[in-house]
Amino acid sequence: MQGQGRTASGVGAALLRLEDDRLLTGRGRFIGDIRLPGMLDVAFVRSPVAHGRVLSVEKPADTEGRVFVHADLAGVAGIRADSGLQGFRSSIQPILAHDKVRHVGEPLAACLADTRAEAEDLAEQVFLDIEELPAVVDMTRARDPDQPLVHEHWSENVFLETSVDINFEAAKAAADVSVHKTLRTSRQSMAPMEGRGVVAYWDNQAEQIVVYTSTQMPHIVRNGLAECLGLEQGQVRVVAPDVGGGFGYKGILLGEEVCLAWLAMHLRRPVRWIEDRREHLIGNSNCREHHYEITGYAANDGRLLAVECEAIVDSGAYSIYPFSACLEAAQVASILPGPYRFDGYRCRTWSVCSNKPAILPYRGVARTGVCFALEVMLDELARKIGMEPSEFRRRNLVPPEAMPFTNITNKIFDSGDYVECLDRAVQAIDLPAVRARQALGEPDGRRIGVGFSVFCEQGAHGTSVYAGWGIPMVPGFEQATVRLTPDGGLEVRVGIQSHGQGLETTLAQVSNEILGIEPRRVKVVHGDTALTPYSTGTWGSRCMVMAGGAVAAACDKLGERMRAIAASVMQAAPDEVELRDGAAWAGERCVSLKEIAGLWYLRPQDLPPDVDPAGLEVTQGYKTVRDTGTFSYACHAVVVAVDPELGDVEILDYLIVEDAGVMVNPMIVDGQVHGGAAQGIGTALYEEMRYDVAGQPMSATFADYHLPGASEIPPIRIDHMETPSPISRFGQKGIGESGAIGPPAAITNAVNDALKDTGAFVAEVPLTPGRILAALAEARAAAAPELAVQP
Amino acid sequence: MKPVAFDLLQAGDVASALAALAGGGDEAKPISGTQSIGPMLNLRLARPSLAVDISRIAALRECRDEGDAILYGAAITHAEIEDGALPDATPGWMAAAARRIAYRAVRNRGTLGGSLAHADPAADWVNVLTALDASVVLRSVGGERTVPLTGFFSGSFSTVLEPGEIITHVRVRKRSAAARWAYWKYCRKVGEFAMASAAVLIDPERTETRILVGAIERPPALLRDPEAVLAGRLGIAEAVTEAAPGLSAQSQALHVAAVGRAIAMADDRNNG
């Protein structure tokens, strides 16, 4: 680790974001801002049914060259994303559906016109003859023999089944108490402010297809496009312009990207598709739908002994590229044990296939679901033992002296004090005061409850973690290129993509930390396969650790060469030279970065004869010391008031104690935690994509799909711990997803705590008024069956 | 989501708007603040060949004190009422209701007449103005008529407006501070339409008492015997069931709560 906060703008500085000048004044360039001469707009004809046999897709008369169907896309392969895990069933997602449609919103034809409105006019005239089939909608029934098969050559609607059993029966045998719960998280639609979008054109000079796309992973999209289109990679360039939010929604190779690229190649005209909110909600609602049967076993003294779980993830109709259909459920099995130490574990998971859009990993991926399942069950277990739930957690968290700790599923927790994290939260939320207030009762008849959730989050997963999944993408050495420009500025080229994380700032801070260069002299270039080294992109809370480490490693190397040149000018030894404050220093003497660069580029005749010929440009690869990931962790604590008459939940206090390791920019960490928590509150209270029995989406506009707005997000208090990771360059840990993980568990626990005297228990998020009122009615009926019919 | 092509007429006066609507028949549609018709156009649920924008007609932007009532032009926006830019027929009740309609951006454009003509059962003006016993002035090329709101809504999203007929004004009777009033609604989140709403008006000067149940997927319902409910002779649940039969158990419970809370608010205000 190097001097944190040593300078005003290095690692540890709460620097204002450099990209905000552009983004906050409307000068960013997003997909919708790109207008190319002669560009045509594309509208897709999408399936109106969830499951059906396509008998015909008829083009309207006189639309030659303006309507394209599957048969037109000669030589284009569908998207295939297999996992190497044993038993994985492979699906192929057609670019345009032909034999069958497998979810509402699946593209069947592409229509082109001068404007989107006219393209939609054309799309309306395409005649679809589809024989509707019964749809697979309920994930808990998807494996039943009476259910239709989504992929007819499969034996059951399951992408992958996994099973793990570690000392379960033996550990369970010692238990005094157990609690079983059926818990469920609803399907959500990630909702970045900017939807997806693609502009593609053929570049005659470069002889390549150029695809601008709102993506988190341009290099992976390039791999996929080349594969599907049968092109050499040299014929494909992918550019992510400014991207208005990702969250996982843009960590995918899209059929629309393949289609647009093909259209641009064949028409030799620029084409554009901008996803609208309706096709977004109908065709691409795609995350978080889990079902858990979870049982916890404990001793009366408060020791957690064993956990057993059967989990189903509704993976939708297709396996998506590159993460596949199995990542989420397989991850459930490996991360369910959370931050706790216990001896026995059994978990079975099914990634079931249904007639819904393919599932994608959303901020937190499976962790939001498993944290909900485990933490809600633990609260019940604590109540059964008669122990304060926070105290029960305290006794079972991995203690600081055990760090680094290898948990029951072989996750290596790198560092931290989980117990202190919880203790700080209990203190800051003032648990005794909440309990006292609860005992008094509220004058307005509402019920107060307090809930906690504790979790750790693996970020910056490395090669060994992903090699095990056997999916199309395995992160290796993360690379960065740094180049001192002739005027003494720095270009940093990275293959990741920044879409709200502030990486143009934080990577400049890393450069400053190593080279002493003013952050405003650092140009971070990202999101363009032609300009940046290969990377798997931005996902999995990896960029600050991996790209940050790579930029540091490249700057180290560049710094050596800069110091050598500076030393020759100052007639000092290279190891006497220090880079700081925009210059190279040897004692009182100094040479500016501009002079160093000028020597190499403009006055090479003055360079010392033994200068390193590699020059002032470096590409360097980087891995963490151990590639099993950093583990940030947090405790969320929340106080709610539940209105038993309305089923309404008001958040009275929300507190997060989190440890992101060394914070490269604390202000940006706060922003990440706030934004994530807002999304987690959406999962907990609002967001739900409902389907009817035919698989029709019932929440197809924002009037029906409720996102929390500014008014729904309470002030969130954040308390930082800062335990360095021993495996990353500066001790930083991945923190991008953390905020979104804790809220559903903490809020559900708080609501159940509020309702505990009524006997009601809510087991499914979002906690809508309907679910809360139903739980209360059920509890009343159970308590007094003769009163059950009364309202 | 882009609309089917349509012609747009920016009407300068009522006569030309009515003439255009009459000439366009079923294919012509009046538009004003476009906060509801806009999304419907984009979703292609509405496909007029002619949209007649009546939001700029001066006569529809006027506000007139008639002594006993205030006459509001139909194109007056929610924001104008919220901001108190116009006389309020009530002791601030209309401004308070306006303040909680959707978001400010919606209120800046959405209009009184547009909201009533759209007739969303959960809309604030539909319920508030019905509870205040307001009436609407309707005009077509055939003439003018006045219809009380209690007879204006014929169903969910449906009214007695004839093709080619528009709302030109809304007449709201004045209420004094001697009257008691409450409007209560429950929304899942700020800016959403209400899941349940209720309004209470107790006006001793006019010897009028009204209790309204709103957001019930049909026109707002007035309790038949509000005095009995206020006096506790009739249970709220019973009265709500009578006025709005067939609600789901959850919806019924919410509406009973809504009426109970509106009554409590009206009482509070009186005591306060």
Automatic annotation (TrEMBL), chain A:
Keywords: Molybdenum, Oxidoreductase. It comes from the Bacteria. InterPro entries: Ald_Oxase/Xan_DH_a/b (IPR000674), Ald_Oxase/Xan_DH_a/b_sf (IPR036856), Ald_Oxase/xanthine_DH-like (IPR016208), AldOxase/xan_DH_MoCoBD1 (IPR008274), AldOxase/xan_DH_MoCoBD2 (IPR046867), AldOxase/xan_DH_Mopterin-bd_sf (IPR037165). SUPFAM superfamilies: CO dehydrogenase molybdoprotein N-domain-like, Molybdenum cofactor-binding domain. Residues 25-134 form the Aldehyde oxidase/xanthine dehydrogenase a/b hammerhead domain. This is Xanthine dehydrogenase family protein molybdopterin-binding subunit.
UniProtKB/TrEMBL annotation, chain B:
Transmembrane segments: none annotated. Gene3D superfamilies: 3.30.465.10, CO dehydrogenase flavoprotein, C-terminal domain (3.30.390.50), Uridine Diphospho-n-acetylenolpyruvylglucosamine Reductase, domain 2 (3.30.43.10). Keywords: FAD, Flavoprotein, Oxidoreductase. Residues 1-177 form the FAD-binding PCMH-type domain. It holds the Pfam family FAD_binding_5. SUPFAM superfamilies: CO dehydrogenase flavoprotein C-terminal domain-like (SSF55447), FAD-binding/transporter-associated domain-like (SSF56176). This is FAD binding domain-containing protein. It comes from Terrihabitans rhizophilus.
